[in-house]
C-alpha cells in the first residue's frame, strides 16, 4: 500500500481534466435518457426548472466537489491502476449518495425515479473507468512498438535469466523488466517444483519444467544460441527446501552464473530492523473473551455512525477545506494490533508544517480557531470510522501510537486493535503521562466488556461537551492493578505533564 503525500508537499491544486469535466456534465443527462427520455422534457422552463434538470444540476455540483476531494484527475490515465479505480469508485459513490440525499431533503425526489442514483452512478463510473482503460491500452501498444525498436538497437546488452519458483512478486518483477527502455534483462523461462504449473505462463513467461531439470534447460538454451547469464530465485519459493537452494547455488557457482533472489537482483534490500529495549514484565496480560466478539459490534456501530454522521462529516470537510485548504484529510502511520502498521486518518486541523519554500511554520500559527473548535468537538476523528470498517481499528480500545511513543513493553496494548476512544481518553486524555495512559489501557484490555464499552462510549460523548479531566480513582485503580499483575511499580499520581509536554502530546496525536 502506498503512502499519501505530506500536506506541505501539495504544491499543485487538485485538477479536473477536460474529459472528466465533460463527462461530469454529460453523465446525468445520459442517465436520465437511459431511464426515461421524458425526464429531459424542459417543462415550464424558464418559470420552473423540471425535476430532471434539477437532478442534473445537483449531481454536477456534487461531482465537481467529490472529484476534487478524491483528486480523481491527478492520476495519469495511461498508468491507470487499482488505486485510481478505488478513487473513482469513492468519488462516484460520494456523488450519487450526496446528491440523492440533498434532493430527497429538499424535493423528496419528486419526479425522479428511485433507480436514478444507481443508474447515474453506473454511467458516471463506467465512463471514467472506460476512458482510462482505453488510454492505457493505446499507450501500451505504442510502448510495445518502441520496445521492439529498442531491442533491435541494443541486443548485445540483453541479459537472460531463468526464474526458479513463481509467485506474485516474481510476476510483477517480470512486468517491470518488460517496461524498461532500453531493456537490459529478460526472463526467458521459469522452473517450478509444482507439476501442475508446468506448461503454464506467468506474466507471459512459460514455466518450462521442474527445478531439477535446470542443467538440461541451460544446455538446451545454449544449443539455440541463448546464453543464460543469471538464475533468480523467487522470494516466495517456499516449496524449494533449504538444501535444494544450496544445491542450486553450488550448481550456479560451478557454471559461473550469478544466483540471487529476485529482491536481491533488483537491489530491494531489507530495511535494518530496530527493536526498542523492552522492560521485563513478570505478569502476562491476556485479552478477555469479549474481544472475540467485538468485531461484529464494531462493524454494526461504525456503519450506523457513518450513516448518521455523513451530513456532519461533509460539513466538517467543507470547513476544513475553507480553513486549511486541500487535502482535507490528515494521515499518520500508526502501530496497530500485533505490530501491524496502518494509516490513521483524520480531518486536518493544523496547517502544513512547511511552506512552499520549505521554511518551517511556527506551531502557534498552524492551528486556527476553527481548527481548535473541530478538534475540541472531536469531529476530526470521524474518518477513523473507515479505519474501523476495514479492520485496522476498533471503536473502543487503546489509542494507536506512533513508533516513537510506544511504551517500554508494547506487547499488551498491541495484543488488541486500537480504538477511536478508550479508557485512557475518558480518564485523563492529554492531561496524564504516557505511562499512566499505558496503565489505563492495559487495565482496559484485561477488563473489557460490553458494559464497560457502553460506559466509555457515553463518557466520550460527555467529555466532548465538558472537556477532559483526570479521574484519579480510575487512574489509581489502574496503577495498583498494573503493579500487582505486571510486576511494574505504581508511579506517582501527583505528576501532571507540563504545558510543553501536553503540547507535544497534542501535536503527535493531531
From TrEMBL:
<dbReference type="InterPro" id="IPR003362">
    <property type="entry name" value="Bact_transf"/>
</dbReference>
<feature type="transmembrane region" description="Helical">
    <location>
        <begin position="299"/>
        <end position="322"/>
    </location>
</feature>
<dbReference type="GO" id="GO:0016780">
    <property type="term" value="F:phosphotransferase activity, for other substituted phosphate groups"/>
</dbReference>
<dbReference type="Pfam" id="PF02397">
    <property type="entry name" value="Bac_transf"/>
</dbReference>
<dbReference type="GO" id="GO:0000271">
    <property type="term" value="P:polysaccharide biosynthetic process"/>
</dbReference>
<feature type="transmembrane region" description="Helical">
    <location>
        <begin position="52"/>
        <end position="70"/>
    </location>
</feature>
<keyword id="KW-0270">Exopolysaccharide synthesis</keyword>
<feature type="transmembrane region" description="Helical">
    <location>
        <begin position="118"/>
        <end position="139"/>
    </location>
</feature>
<protein>
    <submittedName>
        <fullName>Sugar transferase</fullName>
    </submittedName>
</protein>
<keyword id="KW-0472">Membrane</keyword>
<comment type="similarity">
    <text>Belongs to the bacterial sugar transferase family.</text>
</comment>
<feature type="region of interest" description="Disordered">
    <location>
        <begin position="486"/>
        <end position="510"/>
    </location>
</feature>
<keyword id="KW-1133">Transmembrane helix</keyword>
<feature type="domain" description="Bacterial sugar transferase">
    <location>
        <begin position="294"/>
        <end position="463"/>
    </location>
</feature>
<feature type="transmembrane region" description="Helical">
    <location>
        <begin position="82"/>
        <end position="106"/>
    </location>
</feature>
<keyword id="KW-0812">Transmembrane</keyword>
<keyword id="KW-0808">Transferase</keyword>
<feature type="compositionally biased region" description="Basic and acidic residues">
    <location>
        <begin position="493"/>
        <end position="510"/>
    </location>
</feature>
Amino acid at each position: 500500500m502506498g503512502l499519501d503525500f505530506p500536506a506541505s508537499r501539495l504544491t499543485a491544486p487538485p485538477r479536473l481534466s477536460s474529459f472528466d469535466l465533460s463527462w461530469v456534465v454529460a453523465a446525468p443527462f445520459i442517465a436520465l435518457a437511459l431511464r426515461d427520455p421524458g425526464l429531459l422534457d424542459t417543462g415550464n422552463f424558464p418559470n420552473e426548472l423540471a425535476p430532471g434538470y434539477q437532478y442534473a444540476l445537483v449531481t454536477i455540483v456534487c461531482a465537481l466537489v467529490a472529484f476534487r476531494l478524491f483528486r480523481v484527475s491527478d492520476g495519469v490515465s495511461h498508468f491507470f491502476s487499482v488505486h485510481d479505480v478505488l478513487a473513482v469508485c469513492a468519488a462516484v459513490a460520494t456523488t450519487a449518495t450526496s446528491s440523492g440525499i440533498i434532493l430527497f431533503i429538499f424535493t423528496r425526489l419528486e419526479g425522479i425515479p428511485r433507480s436514478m442514483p444507481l443508474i447515474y452512478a453506473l454511467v458516471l463510473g463506467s465512463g471514467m473507468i472506460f476512458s482510462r482503460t482505453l488510454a492505457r491500452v493505446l499507450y501500451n501498444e505504442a510502448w510495445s512498438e518502441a520496445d521492439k525498436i529498442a531491442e533491435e538497437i541494443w541486443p548485445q546488452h540483453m541479459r537472460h535469466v531463468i526464474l526458479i519458483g513463481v509467485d506474485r512478486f516474481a510476476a510483477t518483477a517480470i512486468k517491470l523488466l518488460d517496461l524498461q527502455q532500453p531493456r537490459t534483462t529478460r526472463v526467458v523461462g521459469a522452473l517450478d517444483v509444482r507439476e501442475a504449473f508446468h506448461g503454464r505462463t506467468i506474466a507471459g513467461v512459460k514455466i518450462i519444467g521442474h527445478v531439477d531439470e535446470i542443467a538440461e534447460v541451460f544446455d538446451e538454451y545454449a544449443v539455440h544460441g541463448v546464453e543464460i547469464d543469471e538464475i533468480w530465485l523467487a522470494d516466495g519459493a517456499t516449496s524449494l527446501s533449504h538444501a535444494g537452494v544450496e544445491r542450486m547455488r553450488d550448481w550456479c557457482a560451478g557454471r559461473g552464473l550469478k544466483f540471487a533472489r529476485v529482491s536481491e537482483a533488483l537491489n530491494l534490500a531489507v530495511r535494518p530492523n530496530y527493536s526498542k529495549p523492552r522492560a521485563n514484565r513478570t505478569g502476562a496480560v491476556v485479552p478477555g473473551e469479549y474481544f472475540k466478539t467485538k468485531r461484529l459490534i464494531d462493524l454494526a456501530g461504525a456503519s450506523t455512525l457513518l450513516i448518521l454522521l455523513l451530513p456532519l462529516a461533509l460539513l466538517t470537510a467543507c470547513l476544513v477545506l475553507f480553513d486549511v485548504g486541500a487535502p482535507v484529510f490528515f494521515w499518520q502511520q500508526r502501530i496497530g494490533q500485533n505490530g501491524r502498521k496502518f494509516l490513521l486518518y483524520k480531518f486536518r486541523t493544523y496547517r502544513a508544517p512547511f511552506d512552499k519554500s520549505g521554511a518551517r511554520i511556527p506551531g502557534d500559527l498552524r492551528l486556527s480557531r476553527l481548527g481548535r473548535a473541530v478538534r475540541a468537538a472531536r469531529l476530526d476523528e470521524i474518518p477513523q470510522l473507515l479505519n474501523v470498517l476495514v479492520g485496522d481499528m476498533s471503536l473502543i480500545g487503546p489509542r494507536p501510537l506512533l513508533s516513537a511513543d510506544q511504551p517500554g513493553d508494547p506487547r499488551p496494548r498491541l495484543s488488541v486493535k486500537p480504538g477511536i476512544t478508550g479508557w485512557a481518553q475518558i480518564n485523563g486524555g492529554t492531561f496524564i503521562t504516557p505511562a499512566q495512559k499505558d496503565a489505563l489501557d492495559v487495565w482496559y484490555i484485561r477488563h473489557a466488556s460490553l458494559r464497560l464499552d457502553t460506559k466509555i462510549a457515553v463518557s466520550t460523548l460527555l467529555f466532548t461537551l465538558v472537556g477532559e479531566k483526570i479521574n484519579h480513582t480510575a487512574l489509581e485503580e489502574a496503577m495498583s492493578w498494573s503493579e500487582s499483575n505486571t510486576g511494574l511499580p505504581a508511579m506517582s499520581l501527583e505528576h501532571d505533564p507540563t504545558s510543553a509536554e501536553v503540547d507535544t502530546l497534542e501535536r503527535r496525536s493531531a
